[in-house]
Amino acid sequence: MANLLFTSQSIKDQLSAWRRDFHAYPELGFQEKRTAARIVDVLKPLGYRLRTGVGRAGVIAELGSGSPVIGIRADMDALPIQERNEVPYASQVLGVMHACGHDTHVAMALGAATLLSKEQFPGTVRFLFQPAEEVEDEEGISGAPRMIEDGAMEGVDAVIALHVDADTPTGEIQLEAGMGSAGVDTFYATIVGKGGHGALPYKTIDPIYLASHVIVALNAIVSRRVRPFDQGVISIGSIHGGQADNVIPEKVDLTGTIRYTEPSVQELIHTEIERACKLTQVLGGDYQLKIVKGYPPMMNDEDIVNLIGEVAGELIGEGNVKPADKEMGAEDFAFFTNMVPGAMFSLGCRIEGDERQHHSPSFDIDERCLPIGTAILAASALRYLSKSN
């Protein structure tokens, strides 16, 4: 295993070059054509069997034959953010940026594919270069289920992935069995009133006033309706209503996000959001509500977690394999782990003294993490295949 880390360190300049190329030319979800083409250019000479256009824009790359089959997933899409970093590899695409680290995921998957192409192993490795983790299409479906629809998981016995983590020091990983990320739904509410002149509020049914009661009720759901030992989050992300200072509008639009770990909490929150909106009717108004179900909770399989932890401990030292900090972020990798045992680990990429947070215009990473993630992915795949035979 130590040899794999040494080999990975020997290609660190190539890993950095790949990452910087993807960073400079980011693409939004379901539009990752250039990224997919670059992946094919790298992997075809290595002998990988390739399928393109999977899940609209994804790539499947396979090496080996027969069972077992382990999948390695890397998401490819960027975010609609204008980069502020002044670096040679800054985004060349106006208003689009790799602000979450998916450029690094693709680079490390290519690195792992490179390492594995030099190894002999039983079974099959299948790389899943996935589009659109950050967004959904016009039917509300993200990249993972679209790839599944196109057969990406047929025959797969286990699946692994990583995600860079700007809060974790470079050289460490975080990994834990059980819940790896929360489920996420989105709600869209329209608070309906009766508009009119701001000087004559008694002739109106003020939707801003109605919305204020709904907002208070929404923010009380978790603290007053969800059991203290259950997990739930409701956050209002946007409020839009009115255009003039002296006009009471007809309606106010609210949107927000729901996070949960258990289906019972999801159901409770949906019910309580409806009840909160019904306050508008008590006060003479009305409402329209739509709740859209998104990604399910992602569960890390205990056996796969133990395997990755064992491998990582050998590569970077057991003291650098940490338990995960529990957060309520969501990941559509959950669609894969709902089908077969799988796990995702967080890879430390913190720039010491200059932390760059995910989804911000200044996000960046310590590129010393790239060989580490590459080696752990490759070594975990080899360990799984050897143990399963």
In short:
33% of the residues lie in helices and 26% in strands. It has 389 residues and is of the alpha/beta class. A hairpin with a 3-residue loop joins strand 1 and strand 2.
Break the fold down into its secondary structure elements and pairings.
Elements: H1 2-10, H2 12-24, H3 33-43, E1 49-54, E2 58-65, E3 69-75, H4 102-116, E4 123-130, H5 143-149, E5 158-169, E6 173-174, E7 178-181, E8 183-192, E9 196-197, H6 207-224, E10 232-240, E11 247-248, E12 251-260, H7 263-277, H8 279-282, E13 286-293, E14 298-300, H9 302-316, E15 321-322, H10 334-337, E16 342-350, H11 369-387
Parallel strand pairs: 3-4, 3-5, 5-16, 6-15
Antiparallel strand pairs: 1-2, 2-4, 6-16, 7-14, 8-12, 8-13, 9-11, 10-12
Helix pairs in contact: 1-11, 2-4, 4-11, 6-7, 9-11
- What ranges have pLDDT less than 50 throughout 5 or more consecutive residues? none
Name of the level-1 CATH class of the largest domain: Alpha Beta
- The run of helices and strands is HHHEEEHEHEEEEEHEEEHHEEHEHEH
Tell me, what's the shape? elongated
Which range best describes the helical content: under 10%, 10-25%, 25-40%, 40-55%, 55-70% or over 70%?
A: 25-40%
Output the strand order for the largest sheet: 1-2-4-3-5-16-6-15
What does the largest sheet look like? Answer: 8 strands, mixed
What is the radius of gyration computed over CA atoms, rounded to a whole number of angstroms?
A: 23 Å
* Helix/strand/pairing category: alpha/beta
What is the correct CATH architecture of the largest domain? Answer: 3-Layer(aba) Sandwich
Q: Give the N-terminus to C-terminus distance in angstroms.
A: 18 Å
Mean pLDDT: 97
CATH topology of the largest domain: Aminopeptidase
Q: Give the CATH H-level superfamily of the largest domain.
A: Zn peptidases
Instruction: Bin the strand percentage.
Output: 25-35%
Query: What is the number of independent domains?
Result: 2
Number of helices: 11
Number of strands: 16
